[in-house]
């Protein structure tokens, strides 16, 4: 059992249980994402110009969601292994800063992809 000077106790069995739970949840999510990506891939095979733009936006959204869930699992695993409250607070601060940076970049990329999809769809409808 680990104890810090502030009396913060987490039994070793509890840490192991939490670590296994995070691993099991990550595996379930990875399986779900694999099935989702396979379904998206099947839809892509029959996509038109309009669908191609939407597919790109959808793929980005799925990728971003996967990245955020992956980061959350990593954060959870780090929290489980934290030795004290100070470490937990530092991990939380680092996680939030990283997520905000990622969200900003992803919002820009998502906006660019969505704009391109709309422009491509407009061009395709003008040709008809």
- Strand order in the largest sheet: 1-2
How much is the radius of gyration in Å?
21 Å
Could you tell me the number of beta strands? Answer: 2
Alpha-carbon distance between the termini? 71 Å
Major sheet description: 2 strands, antiparallel
Label the overall shape.
Answer: elongated
Return residue spans where pLDDT drops below 50 for at least 5 consecutive residues. none
Mean pLDDT: 82
Helical residue percent band: over 70%
What's the number of helices? 3
Structural class: mainly alpha
Helix-strand pattern, N to C?
A: EEHHH
- Taken as a percent bin, the fraction of beta residues is under 5%
How many domain regions? 1
Give a short synopsis of this structure.
The protein is mostly helical and 128 residues long. It has helices spanning 12-44, 49-81, 85-127; strands spanning 2-3, 9-10. α1 (12-44) packs antiparallel against α2.
Write structural notes for this entry.
By secondary structure, the chain is mostly helical. The chain has one domain (10-127). It is built from three helices and two strands. The protein has a two-stranded antiparallel ribbon. A hairpin with a 5-residue loop joins strand 1 and strand 2 (9-10). Helix 1 packs antiparallel against helix 2 (49-81) and helix 2 runs antiparallel to helix 3 (85-127). It is elongated and about 70 Å long. The termini are far apart. The model has no long low-confidence stretch (mean pLDDT 82).
Layout of helices and strands, plus pairs?
Layout: E1 2-3, E2 9-10, H1 12-44, H2 49-81, H3 85-127
Antiparallel strand pairs: 1-2
Helix pairs in contact: 1-2, 2-3
């Amino acid at each position: 059992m680990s104890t810090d000077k502030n009396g913060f106790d987490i039994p070793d069995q509890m840490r192991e249980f939490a670590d296994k739970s995070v691993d099991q949840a990550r595996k379930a999510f990875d399986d779900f994402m694999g099935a989702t990506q396979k379904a998206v891939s099947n839809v892509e095979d029959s996509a038109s110009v309009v669908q191609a733009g939407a597919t790109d936006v959808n793929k980005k959204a799925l990728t971003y969601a996967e990245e955020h869930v992956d980061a959350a699992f990593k954060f959870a695993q780090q929290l489980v292994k934290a030795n004290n409250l100070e470490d937990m607070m530092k991990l939380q601060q680092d996680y939030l800063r990283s997520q905000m940076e990622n969200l900003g970049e992803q919002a820009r990329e998502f906006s660019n992809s969505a704009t391109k999809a709309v422009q491509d769809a407009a061009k395709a409808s003008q040709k008809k």
